[in-house]
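tokens incoming
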């Protein structure tokens, strides 16, 4: 039996390391990305890394775009332009370059891409605006590839909730937090996606700590609307000409 191959970016610590460990325990050959392996914003480095993986394994079954950073939690007017743009590059250019490089080698019919996203994509908050904007852009990339007639792959947004990591512990909004999402809740959803149990959710967001595999299956069985769990324009009503 062929061993499935997973590629996980940002896998040296935090959620990425946990997800990579969970996939290995599930029988995957896991390629762990980090800045020392391949900087995800470096086109040539990404292409070389993916080419090496394909040469050694012959295929890729799962790509997990986990690598990400957050900018300072301050208003846009006070933000540092270089830090702001680095955040967007890591969180958008990174998944774009990885997805572009992996797609031609993704196992046909069974290959999947999971983008680690955030509820910040859906919030209107003038703080950490690069992070919020970048996660919104990532949500659009997910739906563009994973939904509708133009679907090119099975692509999912997986929001991990608030897992206790170095990044979340350093964030002002989580100071004093006592309740955290369990890493296992995140990996349970990832493994369900990887196994094909949640294919109805391609192009959409699922959230650990709120959703379970069972609740998502039930919701899909009841029917999903075209825009359910996607990022887009909300019309003012049936008479809105932009519907």
């Amino acid at each position: 039996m062929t061993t499935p191959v997973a590629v996980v970016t940002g896998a040296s610590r935090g959620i990425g390391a946990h997800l990579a460990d969970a996939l290995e325990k599930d029988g995957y050959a896991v390629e762990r990305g980090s800045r020392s392996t391949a900087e995800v914003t470096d086109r040539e480095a990404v292409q070389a890394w993916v080419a090496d993986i394909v040469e050694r394994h012959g295929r890729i079954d799962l790509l997990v775009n986990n690598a990400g950073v957050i900018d300072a939690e301050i208003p846009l007017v006070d933000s540092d332009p270089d830090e702001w743009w680095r955040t967007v590059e890591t969180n958008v250019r990174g998944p774009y370059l990885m997805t572009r490089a992996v797609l031609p080698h993704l196992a046909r019919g069974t290959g999947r891409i999971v983008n680690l996203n955030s509820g910040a994509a859906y919030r209107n908050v003038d703080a950490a605006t690069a992070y919020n904007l970048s996660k919104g852009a990532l949500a659009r990339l997910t739906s563009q590839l994973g939904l509708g007639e133009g679907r090119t792959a099975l692509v999912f947004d997986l929001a991990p909730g608030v897992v206790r990591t170095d990044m979340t512990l350093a964030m002002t909004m989580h100071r004093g937090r006592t309740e955290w999402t369990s890493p296992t809740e995140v990996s349970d959803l990832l493994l369900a996606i990887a196994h094909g149990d949640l294919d109805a959710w391609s192009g959409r967001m699922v959230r650990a700590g709120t959703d379970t595999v069972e609740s998502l299956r039930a919701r899909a069985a009841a029917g999903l609307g075209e825009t359910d769990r996607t990022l887009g324009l909300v019309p003012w009503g049936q008479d809105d000409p932009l519907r």
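note: The domain at 5-222 is CATH 3.40.50.720 (Rossmann fold).
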